[in-house]
Design brief:
By secondary structure, the chain is an alpha/beta fold. It is built from 10 helices and 11 strands.
Protein backbone atom coordinates (compact mmCIF):
# COMPACT_ATOMS: atom_id res chain seq x y z
CA UNK A 1 0.00 0.00 0.00
CA UNK A 2 2.84 2.37 0.80
CA UNK A 3 4.41 1.61 -2.58
CA UNK A 4 1.15 2.42 -4.39
CA UNK A 5 0.52 5.55 -2.32
CA UNK A 6 4.03 6.92 -2.18
CA UNK A 7 5.32 6.05 -5.65
CA UNK A 8 2.64 5.02 -8.19
CA UNK A 9 0.02 7.64 -7.35
CA UNK A 10 2.46 10.65 -7.49
CA UNK A 11 3.75 9.39 -10.86
CA UNK A 12 0.25 9.22 -12.30
CA UNK A 13 -0.70 12.60 -10.83
CA UNK A 14 2.42 14.17 -12.35
CA UNK A 15 1.39 12.90 -15.78
CA UNK A 16 -2.17 14.21 -15.69
CA UNK A 17 -1.64 17.38 -13.65
CA UNK A 18 -1.89 20.55 -15.78
CA UNK A 19 1.49 22.15 -16.26
CA UNK A 20 2.00 25.71 -15.12
CA UNK A 21 3.01 27.88 -18.07
CA UNK A 22 5.03 31.00 -17.23
CA UNK A 23 3.22 34.20 -18.14
CA UNK A 24 6.33 35.84 -19.62
CA UNK A 25 6.90 33.53 -22.59
CA UNK A 26 5.07 35.84 -24.98
CA UNK A 27 5.23 39.61 -25.30
CA UNK A 28 2.77 41.87 -27.04
CA UNK A 29 4.29 44.50 -29.29
CA UNK A 30 3.04 47.98 -28.29
CA UNK A 31 3.36 49.08 -31.90
CA UNK A 32 1.44 46.50 -33.91
CA UNK A 33 -0.07 44.21 -31.26
CA UNK A 34 1.65 41.03 -32.49
CA UNK A 35 2.55 38.40 -29.90
CA UNK A 36 6.28 37.62 -29.98
CA UNK A 37 7.97 34.61 -28.37
CA UNK A 38 10.44 35.76 -25.73
CA UNK A 39 13.45 34.01 -27.28
CA UNK A 40 12.76 35.57 -30.67
CA UNK A 41 12.45 38.96 -28.99
CA UNK A 42 15.78 38.51 -27.20
CA UNK A 43 17.52 37.57 -30.45
CA UNK A 44 16.10 40.70 -32.07
CA UNK A 45 17.37 42.89 -29.18
CA UNK A 46 13.79 43.72 -28.13
CA UNK A 47 12.82 44.95 -31.59
CA UNK A 48 9.54 43.74 -33.13
CA UNK A 49 10.20 41.71 -36.29
CA UNK A 50 6.79 42.69 -37.69
CA UNK A 51 6.76 46.50 -37.39
CA UNK A 52 10.26 47.41 -36.21
CA UNK A 53 9.03 48.94 -32.95
CA UNK A 54 11.95 49.38 -30.54
CA UNK A 55 10.98 48.25 -27.05
CA UNK A 56 13.07 49.25 -24.05
CA UNK A 57 16.28 47.30 -23.53
CA UNK A 58 17.74 46.51 -20.11
CA UNK A 59 20.94 48.31 -19.19
CA UNK A 60 23.01 45.12 -18.89
CA UNK A 61 21.84 43.81 -22.27
CA UNK A 62 22.63 47.16 -23.85
CA UNK A 63 26.18 47.22 -22.48
CA UNK A 64 26.77 43.64 -23.64
CA UNK A 65 25.50 44.63 -27.09
CA UNK A 66 27.89 47.57 -27.42
CA UNK A 67 31.20 46.36 -25.98
CA UNK A 68 33.54 43.95 -27.77
CA UNK A 69 32.56 40.35 -26.89
CA UNK A 70 30.10 41.79 -24.37
CA UNK A 71 32.96 42.37 -21.93
CA UNK A 72 33.23 45.52 -19.83
CA UNK A 73 34.30 46.69 -16.38
CA UNK A 74 31.94 48.59 -14.11
CA UNK A 75 33.29 51.21 -11.76
CA UNK A 76 32.19 51.83 -8.20
CA UNK A 77 30.35 55.14 -8.01
CA UNK A 78 30.77 57.71 -5.22
CA UNK A 79 28.41 57.33 -2.30
CA UNK A 80 25.70 59.93 -1.78
CA UNK A 81 23.00 60.56 0.79
CA UNK A 82 19.97 58.35 0.18
CA UNK A 83 17.37 60.75 1.55
CA UNK A 84 18.79 64.27 1.90
CA UNK A 85 15.36 65.90 2.30
CA UNK A 86 13.76 63.20 4.52
CA UNK A 87 11.04 62.96 1.89
CA UNK A 88 7.78 61.12 2.48
CA UNK A 89 4.53 60.95 0.52
CA UNK A 90 2.43 57.78 0.67
CA UNK A 91 5.67 55.97 1.42
CA UNK A 92 9.08 56.93 2.76
CA UNK A 93 11.64 57.66 0.07
CA UNK A 94 14.14 55.39 1.81
CA UNK A 95 11.62 52.53 1.61
CA UNK A 96 11.07 53.19 -2.10
CA UNK A 97 14.81 53.06 -2.68
CA UNK A 98 15.11 49.84 -0.69
CA UNK A 99 12.33 48.17 -2.70
CA UNK A 100 13.73 49.32 -6.06
CA UNK A 101 17.23 48.18 -5.18
CA UNK A 102 15.93 44.76 -4.23
CA UNK A 103 13.95 44.54 -7.46
CA UNK A 104 16.68 45.70 -9.86
CA UNK A 105 19.83 44.66 -8.04
CA UNK A 106 21.27 48.13 -8.72
CA UNK A 107 22.18 50.88 -6.27
CA UNK A 108 20.71 53.66 -8.43
CA UNK A 109 19.55 54.55 -11.93
CA UNK A 110 22.95 54.73 -13.65
CA UNK A 111 25.72 52.29 -14.55
CA UNK A 112 29.20 53.51 -15.53
CA UNK A 113 31.47 51.08 -17.34
CA UNK A 114 34.55 51.10 -19.54
CA UNK A 115 35.83 48.68 -22.12
CA UNK A 116 36.56 48.44 -25.83
CA UNK A 117 34.36 49.06 -28.83
CA UNK A 118 36.01 48.07 -32.07
CA UNK A 119 39.30 47.88 -30.18
CA UNK A 120 39.02 51.50 -29.00
CA UNK A 121 38.69 52.28 -25.29
CA UNK A 122 35.33 53.91 -24.46
CA UNK A 123 33.63 55.03 -21.24
CA UNK A 124 29.86 54.50 -21.13
CA UNK A 125 27.31 55.87 -18.68
CA UNK A 126 23.97 54.11 -19.21
CA UNK A 127 20.66 54.80 -17.46
CA UNK A 128 18.50 52.04 -16.02
CA UNK A 129 14.86 52.97 -16.67
CA UNK A 130 13.68 50.17 -14.39
CA UNK A 131 15.13 52.09 -11.43
CA UNK A 132 12.39 54.66 -10.67
CA UNK A 133 11.99 55.58 -14.32
CA UNK A 134 15.67 56.39 -14.70
CA UNK A 135 15.09 59.60 -12.73
CA UNK A 136 18.11 61.79 -12.04
CA UNK A 137 19.02 62.44 -8.43
CA UNK A 138 22.30 63.19 -6.69
CA UNK A 139 23.58 59.63 -7.25
CA UNK A 140 23.02 59.89 -11.01
CA UNK A 141 24.77 63.24 -11.07
CA UNK A 142 27.71 61.69 -9.25
CA UNK A 143 27.74 58.91 -11.84
CA UNK A 144 27.89 61.31 -14.80
CA UNK A 145 30.69 63.28 -13.13
CA UNK A 146 32.61 60.06 -12.43
CA UNK A 147 32.17 58.92 -16.04
CA UNK A 148 33.47 62.25 -17.38
CA UNK A 149 36.49 62.16 -15.06
CA UNK A 150 37.24 58.57 -16.09
CA UNK A 151 37.06 59.50 -19.79
CA UNK A 152 39.56 62.32 -19.22
CA UNK A 153 41.82 60.04 -17.16
CA UNK A 154 41.78 57.30 -19.81
CA UNK A 155 41.90 59.73 -22.75
CA UNK A 156 38.80 57.95 -24.08
CA UNK A 157 35.53 58.98 -25.74
CA UNK A 158 32.48 59.35 -23.49
CA UNK A 159 29.16 57.78 -24.49
CA UNK A 160 26.07 58.55 -22.41
CA UNK A 161 22.84 56.61 -22.94
CA UNK A 162 19.94 58.37 -21.21
CA UNK A 163 16.59 56.69 -20.59
CA UNK A 164 14.87 58.90 -18.07
CA UNK A 165 11.69 60.65 -17.08
CA UNK A 166 13.70 63.60 -15.75
CA UNK A 167 14.79 64.85 -12.35
CA UNK A 168 13.82 62.88 -9.22
CA UNK A 169 11.18 64.84 -7.34
CA UNK A 170 11.98 63.20 -3.98
CA UNK A 171 15.31 65.03 -3.97
CA UNK A 172 13.85 68.41 -4.90
CA UNK A 173 16.27 71.21 -5.72
CA UNK A 174 19.24 68.87 -5.22
CA UNK A 175 18.12 66.84 -8.24
CA UNK A 176 17.78 70.01 -10.34
CA UNK A 177 21.32 71.02 -9.36
CA UNK A 178 22.57 67.94 -11.20
CA UNK A 179 21.65 69.62 -14.48
CA UNK A 180 24.43 72.18 -13.93
CA UNK A 181 26.88 69.63 -12.49
CA UNK A 182 26.53 67.23 -15.41
CA UNK A 183 26.83 70.05 -17.94
CA UNK A 184 30.12 71.17 -16.38
CA UNK A 185 31.32 67.54 -16.32
CA UNK A 186 30.82 66.98 -20.06
CA UNK A 187 32.40 70.37 -20.78
CA UNK A 188 35.59 69.06 -19.17
CA UNK A 189 35.54 66.15 -21.63
CA UNK A 190 35.16 68.57 -24.53
CA UNK A 191 37.97 70.78 -23.23
CA UNK A 192 40.28 67.77 -23.59
CA UNK A 193 39.07 67.44 -27.20
CA UNK A 194 37.61 64.00 -26.49
CA UNK A 195 34.49 62.83 -28.36
CA UNK A 196 31.25 63.13 -26.42
CA UNK A 197 28.39 61.18 -28.00
CA UNK A 198 24.84 60.79 -26.71
CA UNK A 199 22.62 57.84 -27.62
CA UNK A 200 19.05 59.01 -27.05
CA UNK A 201 16.69 56.17 -26.12
CA UNK A 202 13.04 56.02 -25.15
CA UNK A 203 12.29 58.14 -23.21
CA UNK A 204 14.69 61.06 -22.77
CA UNK A 205 12.73 63.83 -21.08
CA UNK A 206 12.70 66.45 -18.32
CA UNK A 207 15.86 67.74 -16.71
CA UNK A 208 17.97 65.09 -18.42
CA UNK A 209 17.05 66.33 -21.90
CA UNK A 210 17.50 69.93 -20.69
CA UNK A 211 21.12 69.34 -19.70
CA UNK A 212 23.81 66.86 -20.77
CA UNK A 213 21.58 64.74 -23.03
CA UNK A 214 21.39 67.42 -25.74
CA UNK A 215 25.03 68.55 -25.61
CA UNK A 216 26.68 65.72 -27.51
CA UNK A 217 29.12 66.37 -30.31
CA UNK A 218 26.95 63.90 -32.21
CA UNK A 219 23.38 63.07 -31.22
CA UNK A 220 22.29 59.52 -32.12
CA UNK A 221 18.75 58.28 -31.45
CA UNK A 222 16.90 54.99 -31.64
CA UNK A 223 13.84 54.82 -33.92
CA UNK A 224 10.64 55.99 -32.26
CA UNK A 225 12.35 57.29 -29.11
CA UNK A 226 10.40 60.01 -27.28
CA UNK A 227 12.72 62.99 -26.74
CA UNK A 228 11.66 66.26 -25.17
CA UNK A 229 11.25 68.29 -22.01
CA UNK A 230 7.56 68.36 -21.05
CA UNK A 231 4.96 65.82 -22.15
CA UNK A 232 3.00 66.42 -25.34
CA UNK A 233 -0.31 66.72 -23.46
CA UNK A 234 1.15 69.35 -21.11
CA UNK A 235 2.42 71.36 -24.08
CA UNK A 236 -0.93 71.18 -25.87
CA UNK A 237 -2.77 72.36 -22.76
CA UNK A 238 -0.29 75.21 -22.33
CA UNK A 239 -0.20 76.57 -25.88
CA UNK A 240 -3.77 75.43 -26.70
CA UNK A 241 -2.67 74.15 -30.08
CA UNK A 242 -2.67 70.71 -31.68
CA UNK A 243 0.88 69.39 -31.97
CA UNK A 244 2.21 67.94 -35.26
CA UNK A 245 2.02 64.20 -35.88
CA UNK A 246 4.96 62.39 -34.29
CA UNK A 247 5.97 65.41 -32.24
CA UNK A 248 8.90 64.59 -29.90
CA UNK A 249 9.70 61.38 -31.76
CA UNK A 250 13.29 60.80 -32.90
CA UNK A 251 12.36 60.95 -36.60
CA UNK A 252 10.64 64.33 -36.17
CA UNK A 253 13.65 65.75 -34.31
CA UNK A 254 15.95 64.44 -37.06
CA UNK A 255 13.89 66.30 -39.62
CA UNK A 256 14.13 69.51 -37.57
CA UNK A 257 17.87 69.21 -36.97
CA UNK A 258 17.79 68.39 -33.25
CA UNK A 259 19.22 64.90 -33.83
CA UNK A 260 22.09 63.97 -36.16
CA UNK A 261 21.04 60.43 -37.00
CA UNK A 262 18.41 57.82 -36.18
CA UNK A 263 19.95 54.34 -36.16
CA UNK A 264 18.18 50.96 -35.76
CA UNK A 265 19.37 49.03 -32.74
CA UNK A 266 21.01 46.26 -34.75
CA UNK A 267 23.28 48.86 -36.42
CA UNK A 268 24.10 50.91 -33.32
CA UNK A 269 27.35 49.20 -32.39
CA UNK A 270 28.90 49.44 -35.87
CA UNK A 271 27.70 53.05 -36.22
CA UNK A 272 29.15 54.14 -32.89
CA UNK A 273 32.45 52.36 -33.62
CA UNK A 274 32.65 54.21 -36.94
CA UNK A 275 31.90 57.55 -35.25
CA UNK A 276 34.53 57.05 -32.55
CA UNK A 277 37.05 55.86 -35.14
CA UNK A 278 36.55 58.99 -37.24
CA UNK A 279 36.68 61.37 -34.30
CA UNK A 280 39.74 59.72 -32.75
CA UNK A 281 41.74 59.24 -35.94
CA UNK A 282 44.78 61.48 -35.36
CA UNK A 283 46.70 60.29 -38.40
CA UNK A 284 46.64 62.29 -41.66
CA UNK A 285 44.12 61.24 -44.27
CA UNK A 286 46.92 60.32 -46.70
CA UNK A 287 50.65 60.49 -47.34
CA UNK A 288 52.29 63.90 -47.12
CA UNK A 289 53.60 65.20 -50.44
CA UNK A 290 56.29 67.80 -51.04
CA UNK A 291 55.27 70.10 -53.87
CA UNK A 292 58.02 72.18 -55.47
CA UNK A 293 57.61 75.95 -55.36
CA UNK A 294 58.77 78.17 -58.18
CA UNK A 295 62.17 79.53 -57.33
CA UNK A 296 62.74 77.09 -54.48
CA UNK A 297 66.46 76.64 -53.88
CA UNK A 298 66.19 73.37 -51.98
CA UNK A 299 63.65 70.65 -51.04
CA UNK A 300 63.35 72.33 -47.63
CA UNK A 301 61.66 75.26 -49.32
CA UNK A 302 58.94 73.06 -50.81
CA UNK A 303 55.36 73.29 -49.64
CA UNK A 304 54.13 70.38 -47.49
CA UNK A 305 50.64 69.25 -48.49
Amino acid sequence: MNWLTNYVRPKIQALVRPREVPDNLWHKCPGCGHMIFHRDLEKALNVCQHCGHHMRLGVKKRLEMLFDDGRYTRIELPKSSDDPLKFKDQKRYTDRLKDTRAKTGEHDAIVVAHGRMGGLGVVVAAFNFEFQGGSMGVAVGEGIVAAAELAVLQDAPLLIIPASGGARMQEGILSLMQMARTTVAVDKVKEKRLPYVVLLTDPTTGGVSASFAMLGDIQVAEPGAVIGFAGARVIENTIREKLPEGFQKAEYLLEKGMVDMVVPRKDLRTTLIRIFGLLRNKAPAGDLLLLPVDGAASPEDAVRM
